[in-house]
Amino acid sequence: MNYQSILDSIQKEISSFKNTGKVATYIPELGKVDAHKFGLHLQCVTGEHFALGDAEERFSIQSISKVISLSYALKLAGNSIWQRVDVEPSGDPFNSLVQLEYEKGIPRNPFINAGALVITDILMGHLKKPKEDFLHYVRDIANDQTITYDESVAASEMKHKFRNASLANLMKDFGNLQHNVDDVLDFYFHQCAIAMSCKQLSEAFTIFLNYPKGDHSKQARTLEPILAKRINALMLTCGFYDESGEFAFRVGLPGKSGVGGGIVALHPKQYCIAVWSPPLNAKGNSELGMKVLELFTSRTGISVF
Ligand code: GLN
């Protein structure tokens, strides 16, 4: 497959793309990002990799971190986590409160904010120094010790914490948060504030590729196949909130978005691809990012379907 020529043809096509998206401003620090940034990185199991644009520029990974936290919680706490968070698509926005009330504080899945807050609380029960330990885990899976938190983004979100604080307080009332609400929020906002490039993200997400032993030098860092299977299933069904069906329909890959404008998607046993374009559509997903991934699976003919 000549990936480079396919990527070049995509870049040409999107040069005339009319982006109607808007950069997220509800976390004021995110609103400072240049809306015209665009990066893409494709990492194949063969070790080949390809890039477009600002592929090595770091941005706020935001909810993409929810996949990393889930993988860490599953490693540390195993299947016990499913007593506190469900595995069903929510069909609601990422920060919605409505289902929590009638589902008695059990979030519908780990990729909406409520679910990620529970996963954060679980991690805190297993880690001595949660923020430090989490950062080490991310650096380890990405094989890059330079990755770090963007403290100004974390502080900016803490200042505007009110909706996430509502979710956390409601779950605390239902008995589904063990730690202090502000400590949970602080750790969660830090996870979201990790800054990574498309190149680093596409490397980190190779842990979900489930490729056979010996195919890749990164085998030591891959997850157990059963965990990769479950996390990929959740990415496919819940990775884009109330637009998860649309993403599966148009792109046909498990993936996860963040309000920083990043999207990571992957084809088990084949490749990881990360794109970044800050303007978001009405559902909070990168408008151009979705378009590019749709073009990629259409032109390569490789999706999971
Ligand atoms: N930190 C953001 C929030 O909690 C993450 C949301 C997202 O990326 N969808 O609102």
From TrEMBL:
Gene Ontology molecular function, alphabetical: glutaminase activity
The record's Pfam families line, in alphabetical order, gives:
Glutaminase
Q: What is its EC number?
A: 3.5.1.2
A GO BP term, please? L-glutamine catabolic process
Q: Which residues are listed for substrate binding in this entry? A: S63, N113, E157, N164, Y188, Y241, V259
Task: Recite the UniProt keywords alphabetically.
Answer: Acetylation, Hydrolase
Q: Which reaction does it catalyse?
A: L-glutamine + H2O = L-glutamate + NH4(+)
Q: Which HAMAP family match?
A: Glutaminase
- UniProt family annotation: Belongs to the glutaminase family.
Subunit details for this protein? Homotetramer.
Instruction: Cite the PANTHER family for this sequence.
Output: GLUTAMINASE
The protein in question is named Glutaminase
Q: Which organism is it from?
A: Leeuwenhoekiella blandensis (strain CECT 7118 / CCUG 51940 / KCTC 22103 / MED217) (Flavobacterium sp. (strain MED217))
Instruction: Please state the gene responsible for encoding this protein.
Output: glsA
